[in-house]
């Protein structure tokens, strides 16, 4: 039996949701170039955890990603249940050209208009959609600079989660925009002599603040560029930290993504029959692709959920809704015959098939050739 509840069941007083937030995917501030985040991600997975990658969208089309390996890494991470959060558009200020902020100019202590901020958000949103096929719902401001206009721009652009220290955690900073603030970072420029000191400090801080808050958001930075990732210190450190947490807390520590933790803490959750539930909300690549006259897509539903599968053209205009209904746990296949809502054939070209369920969104490209 599966029971849907309107609110999260209370954790034990000493239990916590544990979030691993990794900021600045491909920072432009150094020349280091680790080839992969594979070891870090697998170390987190070995401890039962998930990663929220706070991604600078523009890096996906810069020289850093000339070979496409960052795109492939993030696509793989998404399929494994990790999260992509948006980190501005390019982490650069349009007013002073600083790479230390974007949504608010710290150099001149001045903000940007609503339309300017929404345009930047939309540009970053499109890059993440078109490169790695996700529509992000969580956001971290570049340089941690933002203002009240930023919050309105985020809410009106479809974001539901922000992670900022500018407002009280576990609260709405704007109607519909919920804040889950980060806690501490212990591995910034970590070296071997600091290893045990940093580890013990992290465990003490998690023990102190985690149960009180009901969650802990641990920060990391720049996994593709920092030497401490290349030489393995951070990978060993996070593995030892999670091993220690698992011994201390056992099943009382719940590893999750930033968005999932925020939704659970704000009361949006379900209780699932684990014996029947596939692990991930997921969507396959469309097949065949390119196609003519029809293509199909498989998607997996982890629990009884509202599902909307919709086709959009290259301009973002809705072409056809393939389904908009509730689905039970399982894997399903739907076909698109290359027609619009009136069942008339559409033109050759690129289309996007978007799968939505609550705050979760996945997008795949389809190319119709005639």
The total beta strand count reads 18
Identify the overall geometry: globular
User: In the CATH hierarchy, what is the superfamily of the largest domain?
Assistant: Glycoside hydrolase/deacetylase
> What can be said about the biggest beta sheet?
5 strands, parallel
Coarse structural class: alpha/beta
What is the CA-based Rg, rounded?
A: 21 Å
- Discrete helix count: 8
Task: Explain what you see.
With 370 residues, the protein is α/β, with parallel strands linked by helices. The chain folds into 2 domains: 250 residues, Glycoside hydrolase/deacetylase (TIM Barrel), CATH 3.20.20.370; 87 residues, Immunoglobulin-like (Sandwich), CATH 2.60.40. Helices cover 26% and strands 26% of the residues. Strands 1, 2, 3, 10 and 11 form a 5-stranded parallel sheet that branches. It has a 4-stranded mixed sheet with strand order 6-7-9-8. It has a 4-stranded antiparallel sheet with strand order 15-14-17-18, with helices on one face. A hairpin with a 2-residue loop joins β17 and β18. α1 runs parallel beside α7, α3 crosses α4 and α5 packs across α7.
Features:
18 strands; TIM Barrel; five-stranded parallel β-sheet; single chain; disordered N terminus; 2 domains; alpha/beta; about 25% helix; 8 helices
Brief digest:
The chain has 370 residues and is of the alpha/beta class. It has helices spanning 38-46, 69-79, 114-132, 148-156, 195-213, 227-230, 233-249, 258-265; strands spanning 16-25, 51-55, 83-86, 104-105, 110-111, 138-139, 161-162, 171-174, 177-179, 215-221, 253-256, 282-283, 295-301, 305-313, 318-327, 330-336, 349-357, 360-368.
